[in-house]
Structure formats: structure tokens, C-alpha cells
Amino acid sequence: MGSAVYLDYNASAPIRPEAAAALSEALGLTGNASSVHGFGRALRQRIESAREAVAALAGAAPADVIFTSGGTEANNLALRGDWERVLVSAGEHDSVLQAAPEAVRIPLGPDGVLRLDRLAEELATGGGRTLASVMLANNETGVIQPIRRVAELVHEAGALLHCDAVQAAGKIPVDMAALGADLLSLSAHKLGGPQGVGALVVREGIDLPALLRGGGQERRRRAGTENAAAIAGFGVAADAALEELDRAAGLAALRDALEARVRALAPETRIFGAEAPRLANTSCITMPGVGAETQVMALDLAGVAVSAGSACSSGKVTVSHVLQAMGAAPEEAATAIRVSFGWGSVPADVDRFIAAWSELYRRAGRGRSAA
Ligand code: PLP
User: Fold this and answer.
1) Atom of ligand 1 nearest to the CA of 195
2) Residue 128 in contact with residue 84, Cβ under 8 Å?
3) Does 140 sit in the ligand 1 pocket, CB within 6 Å?
4) What angle do CA 333, 339, 342 make, to 5 degrees?
5) 115-142 pLDDT, tens per residue?
């Protein structure tokens, strides 16, 4: 797929060359970061400098960063604490929803933004050790939640706030203190780092039971020998992502051009979340009457890689809970695909996408192909 266009950064961004170099350099080192000898100290140094970089990306203190095996583990670690009550937004990632199956779900509005009135109502009904979990940006639509306001409501009620910033980090500024989040999840592979590594940032003073118990790594908050090479790659990717935040914001030009051209070809298209603040890189668009799986396959054949708006696991396609939470009928949600740009995207990618999309639309008997 050398010449294929990759427009699926929200699934996983290509690894940045500098992150791959750091990963590979650290893979060549011998030892265990917990050992006191020179071999161990060399690995420890890689981990601690990555901790500083990741903390800087999140506007947090290095000591607050717990490295994990990814965003999923970070979310599980946060949600599976000894909470008496958990509230989640209905648009959370499955790694939040399934980590807290008993959680109260706060609905979204049709624009994809959390219903703050419903959150406030729910917060008013109970006490106890309560955790609210609201993502900063949605993986399917890119919709950005008003986390600062959410944090105010949550804290006024004496509860704590977990924020899944996996999709937001590296795309918009993430400042944990300014946002008011008490716990914050990150994942390296969404911002150009390696897969299988992430972090939960835990504000000082919050006591969170470890999910993995054993050795004393990560200040006893996550046992197990650290994946030092992946963590080193994460650190370098975090540095690069922070430095390139302006470029990430500039991806709006590509996204807007793509959406304008899709709308010109197919005025009946729906773009989910377009009325709300959104990540600059993400577009969730329908091709009326054509199933997302068909679109993804046809686009793939044409050398354009995107995702279905619906999740496909073990061969079974489920219609997106996020789009349904925004009021989409299952039949409409089933025609949505997600296009997501990133650090390697260029304007010609939009041309390739539009050529393939318009051809499919024409073949589906719906329009003319793009000139
Ligand atoms: N949270 C969000 C919003 C995501 O988009 C993802 C990945 O798709 C995750 C969490 C899980 O992250 P990871 O793939 O690192 O487990």
C-alpha cells in the first residue's frame, strides 16, 4: 500500500521518525530500569525523560504520570478505582464504558456536546465517592467537550473528574490544571508514538488503587517491568506533538476543503458534530444510502484508508453508539465514515479522497464524479 493515502490517524497515527529512532535506540539497551547498575540507570534515564515530556504535553508534573500499556489501560485504571458512583458521557470510548458498566450515562445533544444540564441534575442526586468521566475530544466526530465547565460542576458537587484526552493530545492544547481534570488518559500511538504505551496522569493527592499489583514500579501504582523502549518513543513523540500543535490546528484547512467538496457533490450528506467545536483533523460524514463498510472497502481499493463510523469487532458490525447518542437513526449512523488527518497529511490527500469518494457516490447511482 506504498502509494495509498492514510486518512485514519484517529485509529493510529504513523509513528514519527524521531519516535521510531528513540524506540529502536532504547530497544538496543540491556537491562531492567529498576536495576541500580549502569545498565539499569541508562534505561531509567530514558523513562524519566519521557515522563517529563509526557507531563509537559499534559500540563502536569512528571511525578503525576503513570505509564500504562495504552489508553485502554489508563481508562480502566481510572474508572476501576473504589468509586461509589460513576457518571460517564454517552459518547465515551468503549474502554471507559465497559470499565464501568454500572455507570450512569449522561446524554449528548444532537451536536455531540454533553448535556451539562443533565450532568448537573445527576450530580445533585447523590453523594459518596463519585467520579465523572468525560472525554476531551471524541474519536469518531472530533467534538470537543467543555471540560472546564464540566470540571466546575463536578467539583462543586464534591466529585472528581477523569478526562480521556487520548484523541485530543497533540491536536489541541491539553493543560490538565487549566481544564480542572483530576485524572487524564493519554495514548502514544494517537500522536505519532508507538502502539501499546500510554499514561494516566493523576493529580497529586488522589489515591487510586493499582490495577496491576506486584513490583514497586511507577510508585506502586502500576506493577510490572516498564516497556522502556516504547516509553522512550512516547516521550519523543510527545515532544514533537507539542512542538507541532500549530501545524495540527492548520489541518482544519484540509478538513474544511474536504467537507466543502463533499457537500458540493452531495448536499444531503450529514457531517456529524459540524455545529460544535471540533478537532481540526476529524470529519465524520455520511454517504446516504451506502453502508460504511462498503465505503471503507471501496475507498481502500482506490488506495484511500479511512474508518467506518461504526465499530467492527470479531466480524460483527455494530452501529456507532456515539452517533446514536447524537440522535442519528441506526440506518443513518450506518452510512458514516470517519476521515482523520495528521502530521503527515498533505493537500493532495484531499484530492485523492474526493476522487475516490465521488466515484463511489456516482456508482451508487447518486451523483456525478468530481471533475
Ligand atoms: N480513548 C479514546 C478516545 C480512543 O480513541 C482510544 C483508541 O481508539 C482509546 C481510548 C484507547 O487507546 P489505546 O488504543 O491506546 O488502548
Assistant:
1) 15
2) yes
3) no
4) 150
5) 999 999 999 997 789 999 999 999 999 9
